[in-house]
Amino acid sequence: MTVRTRFAPSPTGSLHVGGARTAIFNWLFARHAGGQFILRIEDTDRTRSTEESIQEITDAMEWLGLDWDEGPFRQSDRLDIYQKIANELLESGHAYKCYVTSEELEEKRKEAQSKGDVLRYKREWAKLNEAPDEPYVIRLQTPDEGTIEVQDSLRGTVTFDAVEVDDFVILKRDGFPTYNFAVVVDDATMNITHVIRGDDHLINTPRQVLIYNALSYDIPKMAHVSMILGADNKRLSKRHGATSVVAYKDKGYLPEAIINFLSRLGWSHGDQEIFTKTELIEKFTLDNVGKSAAVFNEEKVEWLNSWYIKNEPPEKIAGLVLPLLKEKGLDVELDEKLIKIVIELSQRAKTLNDIADMIGYFYAEEIKYDEKAANKFLTPEILPILQDITDRLSQLSDFNMDEMHKIFDQVMEERELKLGKIAQPVRVALTGGTVSPGIFEVMDILGKDEVIKRLNSAISVIPDEEVSNET
Ligand code: GLU
């Protein structure tokens, strides 16, 4: 048996982390088994489905690297299949036409409500208004008593009372299938062997089981995974902030970090936290999917992202930062300099955007000094020291970090100063602020000419002591 899983999003918005986790589990399960992963767009809700959402979902999946082997199939392209199978159910007596209008049902619902009941559909209503030209829905004839069992790989046998399931609609008046019917027809005709989805769908599964049985189809293996909760232990929703995959992409997250993070929501492998995709594929099985709900921890996804930023090849990170820099109007190329900068800045960045935000001074024509930093460190008192350093650095024929170190050591010794006393003013002169990678690394990246130029500019803005005393 070839394992075939599917991801079946309803295109009513962008891909959220919950949906992405479902997609990842199905993808990993299929890849682990050397099987196939199918993408199916469940767009039968015509008022809420949009083309834009389909695009967003497929873009997000491509960004995550969740490649599909078949599809995307669209349910709206398959109406004839649902209609044909619904008619087969009519012929076999498992389903019947129902002519009750929505208005009549609404009346009955109100009536039931006024008595404190919920509406339960009665089969004899079906014939109301029956006439060859009247519109009708098709309902499945469901058992009046007994139980319906759902075999779930994570939860074992889950039993539902048949009376809870009344004769539900499988095909609507407009010829569109209902969700439960379309899912079963698709999963069966697409030969899906394993259905892994959120446990919010467990409530639908007894209905689906009845459709499978009516059609004598084999039921795929089902696994209903617990929902993802926010830090407040409530079901994760927009209230908890940006939860769409694209929002993470826009914030400068790497797909590797998101895949790693989401795979671990509900699945584990010992205490291991960092997993490459290959490792995930190798290790993912349903045996290690837990029953309890997983909590979405914002700090952890951030931590994972900074780990990946530090550990992915710097050339790759530089390539990803490049377009962000271009957007900022920086005329930058993917060269040795950018890679060196990325190596340094990745040590302190949580996202690609952090790197892009910190990088500006490396490429600035002119340094803009942070006012506080300049007032504190570019002072008349420091002037002779900066001048001294500048003179010595300009005499270096080989501008390398060892030689720079030596110069700083000499100046520190001769003037009996600590490194910070010298390094901070130099840092402000070179970067405009007080936070940057190591000062020698910064100088190495900027190169001799630029370092001397920036030091001289700083020297020229330092107020002369006598002048400042007079005023
Ligand atoms: N279309 C459903 C959803 O987006 C998924 C249905 C299923 O996985 O069976 O929630």
The gist of it:
Helix content is 47%, strand content 11%.
Could you explain the architecture of this structure?
- The model has no long low-confidence stretch (mean pLDDT 95).
- With 471 residues, the chain is mainly alpha-helical.
- The protein is 47% helix and 11% strand.
- It has 21 helices and 12 strands.
- It starts with a strand and ends with a helix.
- Strands 1-2-3 form a 3-stranded parallel beta sheet, with helices on one face.
- The protein has 4 domains: 158 residues, Rossmann fold (3-Layer(aba) Sandwich); 92 residues, Alpha-Beta Complex (Glutamyl-tRNA Synthetase, domain 3), CATH 3.90.800.10; 52 residues, Helicase, Ruva Protein, domain 3, CATH 1.10.8; 100 residues, Arc Repressor Mutant, subunit A (Orthogonal Bundle).
- It binds glutamic acid.
- The site of glutamic acid (GLU) has 7 residues, from loops.
Jot down its keywords.
471 residues, mainly alpha, Rossmann fold, Glutamyl-tRNA Synthetase, domain 3, Helicase, Ruva Protein, domain 3, 3-stranded antiparallel beta sheet, 21 helices, 11% strand, elongated, binds glutamic acid
Sequence-ordered SSE layout with sheet pairings:
Layout: E1 4-7, H1 17-32, E2 36-41, H2 51-64, E3 70-74, H3 79-91, E4 95-98, H4 102-114, E5 137-140, E6 147-152, E7 156-161, E8 169-171, H5 179-189, E9 194-198, H6 205-214, E10 221-225, E11 228-229, H7 245-250, H8 255-263, H9 277-283, E12 294-295, H10 298-311, H11 314-327, H12 336-345, H13 352-358, H14 360-363, H15 371-377, H16 383-394, H17 401-415, H18 419-431, H19 439-446, H20 448-461, H21 465-470
Parallel strand pairs: 1-2, 2-3, 9-10, 11-12
Antiparallel strand pairs: 4-5, 5-8, 6-7
Helix pairs in contact: 1-9, 5-6, 8-10, 11-12, 11-13, 12-19, 16-17, 16-20, 18-20
The protein binds glutamic acid.
The site of glutamic acid (GLU) has 7 residues, from loops.
